[in-house]
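Write out this protein's structure.
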Amino acid sequence: MRDLATLLVGDEPDDGVIALRGAERIDLRRFRDDIASNAARLAAANCRHGLLATADTYWCAVGMMALFRIGATVVMPQNATPGAALAIGGAWDLIITDRLDGDADGQFLLGRGDGAGADLRAIDPALCRLSLYTSGSTGRPKRVDKTLAAMQREALAIEAMLGSCVAPDSHVVGMVTHQHLFGLSFKLFWPLLSGRPFEARVYQYWEEVLAENIGQAAIVASPAHLKRLGDLLPDGKHLPPACLISAGAELSDAVAATVQEAFNAPLLEIYGSTETGIVGQRWRKTRDQPWLPAPGVAIDIGPNGALRIQSPFLDDPDWFDVDDRVEPADAGFRLKGRADRVVKIEGKRVSLPEVEATLAASPFVAQVAVLAVGAEGPTLAAVVVTSAEGARELTRLGAFRLGRELRRSLAARHEAAAIPRRWRFVQELPTGPLGKVRQEDLLALFADEQREPELLAMRRNGQELELDLFNGADLAQLDGHFPGMPIVPGVAQIDWAVKLAARYMGIPLASAQTYQVKFHRLTLPGMAVKLCLAHDEARQRLRFSYRRGDDVLTSGVIRLAAT
């Protein structure tokens, strides 16, 4: 294993490969030269706190090491979007990036070194500081401070878990961003210290991954990605990957079995958080498998049933209280839900996990999340993914009556305060980038106005994007279109095409100019539709169509201004 303290000045061969970008191989010589050049420019700009937001993992490594080289603090938002930077305030001097965002002030574009030779020296990992941000349980960005020394200790533990599985000459491929601790630890620091090249690109779609040579590679993916593997399978041209690594949320038994069979590779699940780093691990083999402590982590169970840990990945050696309830199991533990998920409704304490457990026992329910909504006089709300039987009942009874049936099943075991008054029936619980069900995403389902259809799935192939959408019956655009027979208006469909293309394809909203559209069939609330977007960059056009099965509902072309 390398030592980050001497990575920039050590005497190892400088032609060793640090990163890959497709066929491009980036060696240690260039890595050091890029760091030295950018460090000199940052020092000249007197940067003491650099907000690091890059799309490319290699440039993240360059920017981070350049900031550490000059003694600056690295500030990392949850993702590389401008909105994520704005959400955490302005506690930085410059935004360090690999792609400029318009004409915004305070941006520093990372660039290639000049080949003049590296003006570098050893760094002290204990003095290199990193501030990560996480949404936590409330959705508001929460700062978590770490040192480079703690990140190095975690990389050593990852090598202890994966070193015997992933060959020293293999490489690491990631579908999770390095802006999250999971991606930063497994996709950047672990390969960087262990001497394995990492793929600089962050893949979004399985089609992109499966088009590459992933033979004997370690694939770092989120539960959200693994659940969307679907019918896609490796083509058999290459050896299977060494392993798959997942973190962010527990995988179901069905998903875990599917991905292992599809790739013919073992699956390592990681349990932890931005605050704690890695806490638990399990090579997925059996149902209801317990978690084992990560190497070096000591665990204990507090009097309230919540997990406590001592960890080398924390800079504080004291016991740290984790807000998850657990029960002992063999040499490890099983998770029993969040310890802090108790709310007061009408003056009574209600355990949300207990309400969820009762609902989950219903034959109509496949998954459920219960939450409190309303700042004053809160009430309970439930988001339900129906089972096959539940889906039939939803079609037969409708959402209101099915909700009433589920309320009756709760009344036999719970007081009135613990019975949800508001219900949403969805095809899939909304999740964040790593597959976690987040409070803010659930709350958004109960906003007074739903202005966009629910995004169920997304697939991309080059400049083409397919989105599976569900038009809910409570869309604000349905108001007035038309009493007695609501339809989704055409202007809303055009607006959604432009906004979703901007959000997921990077086409600026302001570039949409004129459009031609043809309505083939009515688009109705309650419909699941597929939105197909194709960006013709040469002709500055965005083609779109809404489809239901083989039927085209709406199609059109949006002309774009040159950008």
